[in-house]
Amino acid sequence: MKTIILFVAVALICCACGKNSVATAPGNKAAPANGELHYKVPEGWREEKPNSNMRVAQYKLPKAEGDSADAELVVYYFGQGQGGSAQANIDRWLNQMQQPDGSPSKEKAKIENMTVNGMPVTTVDVLGKYNGGMASPGAAPSATPADMSNYRMRAAIIETPKGSYFVKSTGPQKTVSHWDQAYTDYIKSFEFK
């Protein structure tokens, strides 16, 4: 009887996990809040296996005509109360973008606050030379530093009852701009239920 109950419990848990939901990263403690983050992945984005246990979702956004590299979009989750404050993440992201005139990226960035399906969301949009990111051990960089001088970063912090999720998209400006509407729709599709 115990075996049957265990089997049914595992089956129910497996059924509850959908393709467009995000569970906590391996090694993180389960959050006390009930529910999960759900979202709709835009058509045309190529889902990849996350190459780090800090990444709960990872996508390639195919390059626009004339660009030499694809863009990347990653969703990070570190656990409830983990990952730093919204401002600390915004500052770190802005420091990953250098301006051609040497001015601070904060002066050029567009930072907005909004509410998406009842959740506070802070967004960042900035152009510049991308010099940041965390490469996976042993992974070859997708572009050389010289290739990253005309990049765009769009990022968001989604505050849920389980803690913050961090979305970061980087790539050549033309490619990221090509996916503007898809990115906006993606962020607006986030729901915690």
Just give the CATH class: Alpha Beta
According to DSSP, the number of beta strands is 11
CATH architecture: 3-Layer(aba) Sandwich
User: Element order, helices and strands?
Assistant: HEEEEEHEHEEEEHHE
Within CATH, the superfamily carries the name Mog1/PsbP, alpha/beta/alpha sandwich
Main sheet: strands, sense, barrel: 8 strands, antiparallel
List the keywords.
193 residues, alpha+beta, Protein Transport Mog1p, Chain A, three-stranded antiparallel beta sheet, 11 strands, globular, disordered N terminus
Q: What does this protein structure show overall?
A:
The protein is of the alpha+beta class. It has one domain: Mog1/PsbP, alpha/beta/alpha sandwich (Protein Transport Mog1p, Chain A, 3-Layer(aba) Sandwich). 23% of the residues lie in helices and 33% in strands. The chain is built from five helices and eleven strands. The strands form two sheets. Strands 3, 4, 5, 6, 7, 8, 9 and 10 form an eight-stranded antiparallel β-sheet that branches. Strands 1-2-11 form a three-stranded antiparallel β-sheet, with no helix packed on it. Strand 7 and strand 8 form a beta hairpin. The longest helix is centred in the N-terminal third of the chain and has 15 residues. It starts with a helix and ends with a strand. The N terminus is likely disordered.
Summarize the SSE layout with pairings.
Layout: H1 2-16, E1 21-22, E2 37-38, E3 46-48, E4 55-61, E5 71-77, H2 86-95, E6 97-98, H3 105-108, E7 110-116, E8 119-130, E9 151-160, E10 163-172, H4 173-178, H5 180-188, E11 191-192
